[in-house]
Structures are given as C-alpha cells and as structure tokens.
Write a structure and sequence with these properties.
This protein is mostly beta strands. The protein is built from one helix and 15 strands. The protein folds into two domains: 102 residues; 67 residues, no CATH class.
C-alpha cells in the first residue's frame, strides 16, 4: 500500500515523532511548499496537509526532541539562525533559546536515549552533542574526512594518535 504526499517538493526537511513523519520546506511546484507541512500517519497509512503556523517559513533543520518538534530557521532579514519549538498537543509555537541553532551546518540525529548529536561541518567536521541542562553544544571530537569521488576515509584523530605508527607523514 502506498499513498501520495500532499505537496510535491524537493530539498525538504523531515522529522519523525509518535509514528508520524513531518515534512516541510524545500522547493515545490507551487508557493505552498515552504508554507505547509505534510504529515504521514503510520497508523492510518495516509498523508494530510497542515498549514505552517509559524510566520517564518525558512526551516533549515527539523528534529524531534523531547516529544516536541524543534525547528531551526534562517531569517531572511539578517541571515542569522534562530530556533522554535512546536508543541504537538496544543499545536502552538514558542520561541526558545537560540543556542540550539548555533550548530546548524550538518546532519543531526536523536539517539534512543534522547541525546541530540550533530556532525558540524562549518570549519572541518566535528561531532557535537547538545546538553539539554546547560543549553549548549559541546564538541566530542574532531573528525577528518579524506576522499575522492565515492571513496572516503574517515579518521578519528583522537584514536589514531594513540595507535603506534598510525600517523605518519606522506611524501610524494
């Protein structure tokens, strides 16, 4: 069984929460794409559209955290990033401390224990972790990625520094 998404779009962001997939943003065939959400309900096997209740539609990150949808937006007026939280129960938005929006350049994932991680790709690649209590991102380690085309090698420099003979100078 399959069903069609309500708004055709590409370059969208998505988050999953409570057996529902939330899709928003991106580019589409109409101007409704950035101003709507398409929600897939696993229980009913169907999609339904939801008007984006937030005035700023430019969502660049979308993550389910603590039973709420956290959105990171890029403001058109100053190109800065800010965060919002959508409460599913009462269908309302509220602002939040923008510290979570400071790490916006890279993929995010929430693990089973509820911890939010991100590969920050702003200046090199760093594995970052969000600390809910202090509302800050902390760097866990720096990761160096080298490669060409589809061949990529990822090196954990902290671990490599402890392995005898691993780090050496390449000479051509």
């Amino acid at each position: 069984m399959y069903c069609t998404i309500m708004v055709i779009r590409c370059y969208f962001v998505a988050a999953a929460l409570d057996d529902k997939l939330y899709v928003t943003g991106g580019l589409g065939l109409t101007d409704k794409s950035p101003n709507s959400w398409d929600i897939y309900n696993k229980g009913t096997g169907s999609w339904y559209a939801h008007k984006n209740p937030m005035l700023t539609p430019k969502i660049v990150k979308f993550v389910a955290l603590d039973n709420e949808l956290v959105t990171i937006h890029k403001a058109a007026w100053n190109r800065m990033y800010f965060a919002g939280i959508y409460n599913l129960v009462n269908q309302t938005w509220r602002g939040t401390a923008n510290e979570i929006a400071l790490c916006w350049s890279g993929p995010m994932v929430v693990m089973d224990d509820g911890t939010l991680y991100m590969l920050d790709q702003s200046l090199g690649t760093k594995l970052m972790m969000w600390l809910k209590d202090t509302k800050e991102w902390v760097m866990l380690r720096k990761i160096y990625i080298m490669g060409r085309g589809l061949s990529t090698v990822t090196i954990d420099v902290d671990m490599a520094a402890r392995v005898d003979g691993f780090l050496h100078r390449w000479v051509r």
